[in-house]
Amino acid sequence: MPRAFITGITGQDGQHLAEFLHGKGYEVFGMVKGQNNPKMTAMRDEFPYVEPVPGDLADLPSIVKALELSQPDEVYNLAAISFVAMSFNQAELTANITGTGVLRMLDAVRIVGGSQNNAIRFYQASSSEMFGQVRQTPQTEMTPFHPRSPYGCAKVFGHDITVNYRESYGLFACSGILFNHEGPRRGLEFVTRKVTNSVARIKLGIQDEIVMGNLDSKRDWGYAGDYVKAMWAMLQQDEPDDYVIATGQTHSIEDLVERAFAEVGIEDWRPYVRQDPKFYRPAEVDLLIGDATKAHRQLGWKPEVDFPTLISMMVKHDLALETAKLRRR
Ligand code: NAP
Q1: CB count in 10 Å sphere of residue 75
Q2: Which residue from 36, 177, 255, 308 has the highest number of Cβ atoms inside 10 Å of its Cβ?
Q3: Element (H, E) at 308
Q4: Catalytic residue status for 127
Q5: Per the residue annotation, which of 129, 182, 258, 263 is the catalytic one?
């Protein structure tokens, strides 16, 4: 039975990946931070097959212990301070976890994986936010980085150090440059889920309006359940490499809002949406659109869920969730 170790197991992608790897017959270990992580109970209920292992990306000895205990064949480093807006307020923490945390993971893999054959295969969760002020459209593996947030800067370090450890020490280390991917498990702080959840609450009469930032930014949005399959496929190749994972289609935040309201039968969404500059980023990323040709060719990967289906899935989930909460009141 192959063994996988996932950091960020309590996050959106960690949950999808755990489910996917379990379905493939893996024994799954998940690193959980904190002495009494509030997400643990829900995780144990939904994913009883995941073996939780304590550890923190800020603490190298804890990562080494976690890897010694789980003895994985594959390590997926999904943990991060992942919310761009928060990274502006907590830039040093973001650099330490999202950036230097990758270096700690790679060193732990070297220590536990052994220098002889470096048997552990490593996946790093890189991000399209590294492209920031884009130098070329669409963005490929060769597009230069120009990050526009502390999050993007930290991800560039994590990406570069992954490539460096692969080239310097022969680690089987891959970096997936993933464009935005969403789903009902997305945190409520992220714009897609904020919109779909607010639309559900407005429809049910629990909330009056959504307060938004920039509606003009454009993103390449896919479904998280599709994207974790690409992570796994990267680690099954003969040689480690980096891949852009994207749908190749872009939509504005206004498109997202319009589609989410249409899903609940509200055609004129403007009376329900207020813009507030406090939600604008200090430096904006205007347009992201990825070219995943290399992943199509080499991994045989293609996205299956399109944008309208994704938003519909999220709105339906949030309607059911908020209705259930109303009934419990
Ligand atoms: P997420 O839902 O925000 O999950 C982040 C995870 O990191 C959580 O499990 C969190 O644990 C964990 N974590 C935070 N600080 C930690 C620390 N110091 N030590 C150990 N664990 C820590 O993120 P996601 O959407 O699943 O994304 C997964 C990865 O892909 C992230 O690295 C993200 O930056 C990257 N990425 C995401 C997207 C996207 O669109 N979703 C796109 C490109 C790249 P707690 O729950 O206990 O806080």
Answers
A1: 30
A2: 177
A3: helix 307-328
A4: yes
A5: 129
- pLDDT tens readout for residues 210-225: 999 999 999 999 999 9
Alpha carbon of 203 to ligand 1 centroid (Å):
30
Q: Which atom of ligand 1 is nearest to the CA of 10?
A: 9
Q: Domain spans of the chain?
A: 3-182+221-245, 191-219+250-286+306-328
CB atoms under 10 Å from CB of 247, counted, come to 24
Does a cis peptide bond (omega within 30 degrees of 0) precede residue 138? yes
Are the CB atoms for 273 and 257 separated by under 8 Å?
yes
Q: Which atom of ligand 1 is nearest to the CA of 15?
A: 26
What distances in angstroms separate CA 65 from CA 38, 50, 56, 169, one per listed residue?
22, 17, 11, 21
* Crossing angle (nearest 10°) for helices 101-113 and 60-70: 40
**191-219+250-286+306-328 belongs to which CATH class?**
alpha beta
Superfamily for the 3-182+221-245 domain: NAD(P)-binding Rossmann-like Domain (3.40.50.720)
